[in-house]
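Troubleshooting log. The previous structure file for this entry was overwritten by mistake, so regenerating from the original sequence record. Sequence copied from the archived sheet and checked twice against the printout by T.R.
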Amino acid sequence: MRIAALATLLMCLPLTLWPGLASASSVNSKAASADAHSAAPSFRLPAVEGTVDSDSLRGHPVLVDFWASWCGPCAESFPWLKSVQERYADKGLKVVAINLDKKREAAEDFLLKHEAPFTVAFDPEGKTAEAFQVQSMPSSFLLAPDGTILYTKHGFRADHTEEIEAKIEEVCQ
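Regenerated output below.
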């Protein structure tokens, strides 16, 4: 039992795999990261199908979510991401989940267990995460159709989704 608790605790620790990524609380939506109301960093990444380019997402609200296969809260967030994509797709929302595993096989194994009916991209070097100043796993960034960061959420807890969903609702009107 103690080993399982320790493993869960370790999965929730802030992301420290790439230089320049600071630590933060796993559920702090106001922690320093890519500034709200600033332009989101541009990216072009390989995806499950083809590539995803931030420029091609302009004109749509976008929820960018950074995740890794070893992250317990990331696994918990995937059903919620699926639900958000399904509920807001007709209002133009695009969900882009960016995986940070160094080995793509780990991400692919995770995806066999967790349905992802949204765009999944791969950033094994963590350059996009660094540009967004990701601090913990998972981290979500809600972007306006013009590419401006509207809201940032670090970590995931099912009982904390109301706040980000209210922001999604606002941008999707």
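The domain at 2-171 is CATH 3.40.30.10 (Glutaredoxin). Archived copy saved in two places this time.
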